[in-house]
């Protein structure tokens, strides 16, 4: 009981502020201060969320979206880390690719969809590749920076103690860059979620983005909010999951901003 | 001087750096020797190339001219192992794995590595901290790990680049005593760079004084203060006299180094 009290004192604000928002929202919709057509009461949204979950609609869409995120994140992570490491290690490559990346990176990912459709078969593959683009750049950037910021003195000491070639890479450069790689992965995963929803809105009939858009078009506003909620929850879970993985794999970095 | 070959031979070594299109001479035809088992201290003002000389000995830097030779008596062990000023431990390795890093790179088997690590941990008094990461240790403890890492590979010559400079005064004093104890037990040849003359007199068999840039050997002083030596040596008249003698020379070099840093005197230029 005492422990619970302490925990509440510690995390009270974190839990309390969204709860307070919901309570105000509930009250405002109930009294007509907010138009219930556009801002239905959270309790109503909750009921719709339950119905969507019970009839299986929500799971099917969530599974579709998660599968797409899984593929595009894997694609972005593998390519981003490999190319980022290479750019960190070889100056010529970095100087060659930097300007190209700088031009492509700020373009909103969804705009790549038509382009990607020319290159690969339209449909799932195009959707996954489009989703991976921005995430790839983020991961490549942070990985490159991760290699570049390794303390020169540490590398010099490693060389002095005989680390060469593969050993130098695996025991020094890769772990040295790893905290930054994880930051990139976390940002990249978040962007995968953002982009996949956007791409699903414009070009898919399955997935949370599609469900969201469909609900809006037929004015099932409660379903739209329910989907919103699921997407937000998914984002938080993915982010925390990766943070937990980081804490396990990068134990030497003092726990700063792990949450 | 004994007639046998010196353990460390530095002969007419010069180092020139290129920086921003200008070449700066860090070391100018420097010659030094250290006998096997000797504790040689190198002092000099900032910029006198003390660290540069050590980096040449460590093989981290190639001299522009001259030759360096280290007598190898035990085949299979590295010629040198360096203790770095800012410890330069690998942050992602535990204390134990930092100590065995050099052995791993040389392909020494696991059992031998672990035995060696245990021995080193006991020697530097960190047996309880084998599984800690460097960020969990104090400055003095990190430097103990740095020393253990260097000694674990059983080098022909131990190189130390101002290893205690980053520590607070009290920790430094403790570490000096520790160093004396460890060195007395091993009898290693040590080349020790420091900017502290007191430290050099406490630890060294001889003190080589370098000039302001470009570094040359100004003079070499034998430290005849007996062994084993402890902190109480600082109260002896012989210590005071030697300190005074070397300091008067070192002072000249320090003043010169400061004036060089300031650049030419504008009034003299105007005249």
Describe this protein's structure.
The complex is a heterodimer of chains A (259) and B (271). Chain A has 259 residues and is mostly helical. Chain A has 10 helices and no strands. Chain A has 2 domains: 39 residues, no CATH class; 210 residues, MetI-like (MetI-like fold). Chain B is an alpha/beta fold. Chain B has a domain of 143 residues: 3-Layer(aba) Sandwich (Rossmann fold). In chain B, 38% of the residues lie in helices and 23% in strands. A 6-stranded mixed sheet of chain B has the order 5-6-7-3-8-9, sandwiched between helices. In chain B, strand 1 and strand 2 form a beta hairpin. In chain B, helix 4 crosses helix 5. Classes of the chains: A mainly alpha (259), B alpha/beta (271). At the A-B interface, helix 7 and helix 8 of A face helix 3 of B.
Sum this structure up briefly.
The complex is a heterodimer of chains A (259) and B (271). With 259 residues, chain A is mainly alpha-helical.
Task: Give the tags.
heterodimer, A: 259 residues, mainly alpha, MetI-like fold, 2 domains, B: 271 residues, Rossmann fold, 23% strand, globular
